[in-house]
Amino acid sequence: MREITFAEATLEAMAEEMERDPRVFVMGEDIARQGGIFGQFKGLPQKFGYDRVRDTPISETTIVGSGVGAALAGMRPVVDMHFVDFVGIAMDEIYNQMAKVRYMFGGQATVPVVLRAPDGITQSAAAQHSQSLEAWFLHVPGLKVVIPSNPADAKGLLKSAIRDDNPVLYFENKVLYRQKGPVPEDEYLTPIGQANVVKEGKDVTIVSYSITLQKCIEAAKRLEQEGINVEVIDLRTIVPMDKETIYNSVKKTKHLVIAHEAVKTGGVGAEIAAAVAEDVIEYLDGPIMRLGGKFTPIPFSPALEKIWPPSVEDIYSAVKQII
Amino acid sequence: MNSIDKELLIKMYMNMVKIRRFEEKANELFLNGEIPGFVHLYIGEEAIATGVMFNLNTDDYITSTHRGHGHTISKGAELKPMMAEIMGKKTGYCHGKGGSMHIADFKVGMLGANGVVGGGFAIATGAALAAKLRGSKQVAVCFFGDGASNRGTFHESLNMASAWRLPVIFVCENNQYASTTPYRTTTSVENIADRAIGYSIPGVVANGNDVFDVYEVAKAAVERAREGGGPTLIEAKTYRIKGHFVGDPEMYRTKEEVNEHFENDDPIKNFKSQVLRRGELTDEEMDDIDKRVADEIKEAVEYGRKSPYPEPEEIYDDLYV
Ligand SMILES: Cc1ncc(C[n+]2csc(CCOP(=O)(O)OP(=O)(O)O)c2C)c(N)n1
Ligand SMILES: [Mg+2]
Fold it and tell me: Most exposed of A20, A72, A278, A316 (fewest Cβ within 10 Å)?
């Protein structure tokens, strides 16, 4: 199969959906003239015009809020947050407006808006340009949250997100943008709400997503050499969460480790651990281990930045500890 | 111009050259891989921080931006811990936690650069509120870009500062671009200073490439604020000579456009030609300052290079008191 980068995969998804549906348009800072700071919008205005690919003022509140308004008025906007770190500027527009409009007004409205947000640590971007904030939105009923780990899912999930009649937050990791992977040429959709078992195993389940999945696969390879057979699950969607895939795996392996780059405390791992404890604890043969970023802002210095997120070694040790 | 004596002229020149050389060095070190992260250079905008800051006292406050080296130097920070900070070293102002986008020196009232555009408006407003509550006669200055003027915090801060007559000066550095976006394509007004009318405060346009003009405009605003007259919005018109950040491919403008500005309207050249014409400083005096600055930059780089990185256990330091 041909290989393209994660950024190119998202670009194909945008182009295909904009081609297919004239209601789809995109707006954000520096996306038209520059093609996005990570090249993830390159060429779109040439194809679809500057009306449908819009450079906005630095006004995150209104970028998101007007996306909600345009969706209520019959369009299918994609709004770009530049860096997920700025999403708080538009927080009310997300959790009080975008998420609630449909339910609060008794199902009269649909809000087909997609919010794209680059996240994750890269090259000392420091405390305000490095975060992973997906867990905040797990706590807000009414939103869907997707977080792909590879180019094929990036494309398939973005297309599904644009076609979804619910608001979808789409988190894309900055380091993943440049990575290549196989992506089918024929059209396809990746369903929202389905996890992917990327490697089968019988001794321990590791649940992860986004960039950290690669570290889990690395750790799994080392563990295999010691005869520990690891099952690795890529969550792909955080809301709605595919608990069934996680539970089936845990029932088989009886051991669970969860790893993500976002701060461990109050993270997605906490929700998974709680759900597993609530529903299938009787299958477990050991404690659930969670790995995540340290409980500090992300430090600038490369010497500190590199030890902030969980490492392959940390994931490996966590498995060893419970097996 | 009689409010500017020779001593002040020398300080102003030295400050502008210090910023220029610091930034040129930062550019070089970044490309060398010695400075990590994002670096946004203040080259071409030196007259603004300089002209404003020589109206301030050490205990006055400023808030800065992602393009903050010039503000930091002008407020009185030292080059050694600045250089160490942007290199990610333990001896830096923030012990390597902040970097270029988050440099600060609270000892001299520099309340922080900011990675979030428009993050400084409310903080400067709050610092001014503190000064007013204490009756201390301190003022606060908020530096921000043309792009930042479109953040909601601009509106909320200017309104509250005006309604409460707070001693704060909002200084817009209009360098024509918000990263890749020419400001006129996303901004409703030709002059950002025109927005002052909506807040019942003075709005003044200054030539941001003329340190004397900035100095005089800021002087009036600072005096007004200290005397309880409330905020002023200053728009200093300038041009961003370098890319948005070091490494910017600059696909959104031509080399000719940049050169035209740099050749014809460089704030340091403008200063030199004015003081030479008026016979206020000589070439020799300025050359001598250039040499002193060059030495200081060299020492700062050596200090940064020699300094150690933070130890792993320092990662948890300073989260709480
Ligand atoms: C809230 C927020 N939105 C977007 C960004 C990304 N960003 C960093 S600098 C910048 C442009 C800022 O333009 P301006 O305010 O004119 O300042 P300049 O860079 O020209 O000094 C943008 C969009 C950010 N850091 N913070
Ligand atoms: Mg600007």
Answer: A278
